[in-house]
Amino acid sequence: MTAPPTGRDSAPRTGRRRLTYFHGQLLSAQDLRQEQGQFLARLRLHNLALHGYGVAYGLWTRPVPPPVGECPDPERAAPWFEVTDGLAVDRHGDEVIVPCGILPRHDLWQLLDEDERCRALEEIRSGRDGVTVHLTIHHCEEPVDSVRAVYTEACDGLPRTAYAHIREGFALRATTRRPEPDSCDPPCPCEPPAGGAPEAHGCGDGKIFGPGLLLARVHHVRPDRALDPEQIHPEFRRPLSRRPATVITSISWPHGGRLTTQQARVLLGERGLRIRFSRPVRAASLQDPGIADLFQVTGGRGVHGTVMRLETRIDAAGPDDQTTDRITIRQTDIEYLNDGDRIHLVLRTPFVLDICGDPVDGTHTGGLVPQPGGPAAHRPGLLPPDGCGPRTSGTPAGAAGVFESWIFIDNRRPDHDGDGDADADAKAEAEAEPADRAVTAADDSRADESRTNDSETIEGRP
Fold this sequence. Notes:
The structure is a single chain. Helix content is 17%, strand content 27%. By secondary structure, the chain is α+β, with helices and mostly antiparallel strands. It has helices at residues 29-51, 108-111, 114-125, 261-271, 418-430, 434-439, 441-451; strands at residues 54-58, 61-63, 80-83, 86-89, 95-98, 105-107, 131-148, 161-175, 201-202, 208-209, 213-221, 232-233, 248-251, 258-259, 273-282, 292-297, 307-310, 312-317, 323-331, 342-347, 403-409. The protein is elongated, with a radius of gyration of 28 Å. It folds into 2 domains: 30-65 and 75-149 and 159-184 and 197-236, no CATH class; 248-451, no CATH class. The strands form 5 sheets. Strands 7, 8, 9, 10, 11 and 12 form a 6-stranded antiparallel beta sheet that branches. It is built from 7 helices and 21 strands.
């Protein structure tokens, strides 16, 4: 008896093959493995081609506080953390799932390999306040349930044992090495190798691990100190997407804040308006004079409502002349800043292209892009939709909107002290990588000089 015709005789000979069933057919273990493998390949193809890879939801990293008591356990003073439930897709198309009700807890220091722990201890002894650790999650497969076969092979004397099932799970790893940046195009969802499984690497314990997904960057990690929420930065992880949009991750001023004339002069001139992107952008796309505009809307008593455009320039600081992940917008002319004025910044991010050639999504959602080292959302009750992590610009749909922000000149009731902002910026930059700190060293020196000059007076309306 033969299999019934499918009516699709025009299928190419090099296409996928799937098993057909008919009465009296003899199936082998190889047939069933191939059938299972082709369905797994279809699922991986679907995930990568339609959704891309990254974190779909959850998988937030939280510190585990040490127990409070008269005799605390010294081992619990270590940097323990936990990961919430969630779902992600790795670069091979495999689903990484942390089920609900499971809070895996680990000592972040112990997740480092022995060589990295030794190098980190040397840096700590030399005076450094901890090291930066990158936490990743991996898809894991492990054969389980060893059973003895009923029948033997032709040349076997005794029935052999084999694993009856493969258990899928996840594994957490940590390293001090910075991960490679994501490529512009998603990985090619090609056919798996002849073995029926995607390329992976083993760890010598019978488990198979897939490529890792970055969950968080943790600063100032020490073996003898518990973690604080401020040390964990989940904004570096990749959301589930084929090509995630480049967004603005931090700004150096309080959106909608009130500054004195002297504070605004320092911010707009010597220190500049600093903007940081989630990935490098092309410096050539920042050369158009119409990319950024700084407007002064007159207020206060008397004639007001006049809009004046302030002269500005864009300073790009990056590892090379082609790309940069941060810019500084400075006022180059001298205009009187009077009480009641509003300074309005417009950055036309749809014209700013990232390294992949895509426009930056600069929509300033809710005006909640934070300052470096500041809270995730400076307005209560307006955390991100998932409830964790700092705000950025952009929308879920990825529409490339224009970035806008403003401040007010108020010489009577300033909301904050300019020196306090400078200290917060300096603290945040101290947590950055050494290469990042070198970029802003010159700007900080100019800002320090400006704060020593108190000769600025409140100007009257000309």
